[in-house]
Design a protein that fits this description.
The chain folds into 3 domains: 3-85, SRP54, nucleotide-binding domain (Four Helix Bundle (Hemerythrin (Met), subunit A)); 101-296, P-loop containing nucleotide triphosphate hydrolases (Rossmann fold), CATH 3.40.50.300; 302-439, Signal recognition particle, SRP54 subunit, M-domain (434 Repressor (Amino-terminal Domain), Orthogonal Bundle), CATH 1.10.260. The protein contains 22 helices and 8 strands. It has helices at residues 3-17, 24-40, 45-59, 62-65, 70-85, 113-126, 143-154, 167-180, 198-211, 226-238, 256-265, 286-293, 299-309, 312-324, 329-341, 345-350, 355-359, 366-377, 381-385, 392-402, 406-427, 434-439; strands at residues 101-106, 131-136, 157-159, 185-190, 215-221, 243-247, 269-273, 281-283.
Length: 443
Amino acid sequence: MFESLSKKLERAFKNLRGQGKLTEKNMKDGLQEIRMALLEADVNYKVVKQFIADVQERALGQEVLASLQPGQVIVKIVHDELVKIMGGGNAPLRLSQTPPTIIMMVGLQGQGKTTTAGKLAMHLKKQGRHPLLVGADVYRPAAIKQLEVVAEQAGVESFSLGPQADPVDICLMARGEAQMRNCDVIILDTAGRLHVDEEMMSEVRRIQSQMHPHEILFVANAMTGQDAVTSAKQFHENLPLTGVVLTQMDGDARGGAAISLIQVTGCPIKFVGTGEKLDALQAFHPQRMADQILGMGDIVSLVEQAQQVVDREQAIEFQKKARKASWDLEDFLQQMQQVKKMGNLGDLVKKIPGMSSMLGDQEFDMDELKYTEAIIYSMTKKERQNPKIINGNRRLRIADGSGTSVQDVNRLLKDFEKMKKMMKQMMKGGKRGGRRLLRMPGM
């Protein structure tokens, strides 16, 4: 996400940093580049206009013009203003002190409400809650069945009265079901609807008036850009929305919806969907998003992801071995599998501060990891533990077993030895070799 915007802003900042002294003239040129970058990222034009005015007011202050590093100061100002227009801080879910908490999911058709309801249920389950997913979409074929499947995958309870029942009755009956099943959160998955469909909007207003939800979350696809912002605004005029969930944020390289939404609708973004799996839901943090947009990384989110999937004891043991360069291919395979659980390698690397500028436009091919795994799996335990015993015949056997070539096996073994040396250097505090290390298959 934000890849396109990040690159354009970086170009604008590079031009500003190249100025020996900052003047009103080159400042305005730089702001024009930032304005174009935001508009091309599909940020609402009124938001861009206000944003540039706020940045300009702060940037043309005497402290900036007299600064020895004006380019850095501009980056800081842009960062602060981005955080401000995206809400300033995280807006957590409002959970009732007297269960059950009722969360109502609304939005247009095809925006991912049912899957998002499942993701939210899994998110709450990890926090020790016991959610009940309620299928109140009786119009879309197989919607209730989909909800049941999603609930099963998430490991949570589900409830519905079937496609013939009234959605309001389904939601009302869910209260009793939640009490009987000891569920402390009710997530209502309502049908997709257009704001101009008065009959459907009347139905969702009846659900709202009968259930008095603590949260009414509008689910929108980030890839629809300003259409998502417009739809959220129109729904907010009909329903008292408390927040927005943006789906498919990982597929939107522009990110305009996330930047515009709060300013246009007045509703905070509470979560963003970052993948198809049910655990791919993240709380929205404006500070972290601004860091990512400006290429500063997001080490906090990276650590949180690691804490969820990485075996702490294995990680500590690997660290000890890495310092001595005594790790083998079994250790490498183990670590590679841990990293794969965290998601796309390229996205992970970009969360490390400074790494985006180091790597430039380099892409990471996740398929390459599969070949690396296949080669290592085709080795015997002794070969993994001591790669030096792998002679010509063994390499031929490993290549045949993994569906690769002897050259691929040779490359892996050669890169592995280089990797051990570079890792040892990095663990001792050296920076040399970092870029080469990340270019290697499997890293």
